[in-house]
Amino acid sequence: MSEGVRIALVGCGAIGELVARRVYASPPPGARVVAVVDRVAHRAAEVGALLGVPAFTDLAEVPAVDAVDIRLPHDAHAAAVLHALDAGLHVLVEKPLATTEADGRALVEAAGASDRVVAVAENYPHLATVQAAARAIEAGRIGELVAVRTTRAYRLDGVWLRDGWRQDGGPAAGILLDQGTHHTSLLRHLAGPIAAVTASGGADTVGLTLRFASGVIGQSLYTWVTPAFGPEIEATAYGTGGRIDIRVDYEGAGGSAVLRSGEVLVEGEDYYDSHRAIVADWVGAIREGRTPLVDAASAFADLRVVLAAAEEVDRWTL
Ligand SMILES: NC(=O)c1ccc[n+]([C@@H]2O[C@H](COP(=O)([O-])OP(=O)(O)OC[C@H]3O[C@@H](n4cnc5c(N)ncnc54)[C@H](O)[C@@H]3O)[C@@H](O)[C@H]2O)c1
Asked: Which CATH number fits domain 5-122: 3.40.30.10, 3.40.640.10, 3.30.499.10, 3.40.50.720?
């Protein structure tokens, strides 16, 4: 691998194209996309042209690679990861790890039994704002942590609707699966392991109440049917001595972590830059033989919370 990890980018849809443009067009050290794959030939061809590499409609056609970066719809992740591990390839796969508990568990087992690196593209643990907030909480800057609240409120539109799988009621659909593991990983990063969850809502809007192993209480609200209003406070950590707000910006560099006292911990962060950190960490893990920041077991912990929340939706009615 002296010339870098040879990567096939699998899935040239919305996020595949974004990652090609924003990460692989000038890749982090050691990463080298040598082929792209999408079953829609013109998408593969366009991203292949962008990166100057050959395009394919089936991974089986791709010549020798060391690793695959899988950017497919949710219900295609499990089979694609297992196939890649069978072929001896390192894997980066989009969130959520899988769509069922059984598939998630099978992936954790397969990853554990293999000597390949399996990383999951879960963004929040890679955000400087989230890392700074977690450090501040750990250092007691807001006293004792008592509660954490997260919100993801925006309008699903444009390229995210193109193939319809997010809203067709199928196994990949719904905001809980789409945004839930993101926020679960964020919550776990700030407050540790989650012990219990209840939920209410439907395919487009969901609310969760959580209890952490530490006794901290959490709330999350996700909706994708309301206009977005620029960088929003997506998470607040409440302590006995203060608060921290984490603002996330999907359109530019407006992300920040700020103590309510006014002290700025981090500012100027662009959410989508985290994809560069994710790829750099994955390739670093491959080259150094270490565990990536978000491995299959960590992503499975997030998935379990989301699946438990889905089971719990409106269980108690009055
Ligand atoms: N981490 C993030 O910031 C972030 C943001 C957006 C999407 N995502 C995740 O990325 C994944 C993809 O989402 P998207 O919005 O790009 O979806 P999309 O539908 O735009 O793209 C998926 C692509 O995969 C292709 N495809 C499907 N099955 C295939 C197969 N078997 N072989 C080859 N190609 C196949 C489709 O033709 C499509 O072009 C999802 O897991 C989603 O949750 C993550």
From this structure: 3.40.50.720
CA-nearest residue for atom 27, ligand 1, is 72
Strand order in the sheet with 118-121: 55-56, 31-37, 5-10, 67-70, 90-94, 118-121
Residue 257 in contact with residue 250, Cβ under 8 Å?
Answer: no
What distance in angstroms lies between residue 92's CA and the mean position of ligand 1's atoms? 13
Instruction: Give the distance (Å) from ligand 1 centre to CA of residue 224.
Output: 18
Report the CATH number of the 124-271+305-312 domain: 3.30.360.10
Q: What is the number of other CB atoms lying within 10 angstroms of the CB of residue 250?
A: 15
Residues in the chain: 318
d(CA 169, CA 176): 12
Confidence of residue 265 (pLDDT cuts 50, 70, 90): very high
What's the 60 CA to ligand 1 centre distance in angstroms?
18
Closest atom of ligand 1 to 123 CA is 1
In short, whether 121's Cβ falls inside 6 Å of ligand 1 is yes
Q: What does the pLDDT look like over 292-316, one tens digit per residue?
A: 999 999 999 999 999 999 998 877 7
Whether 182 and 122 have beta carbons less than 8 Å apart is answered as: yes
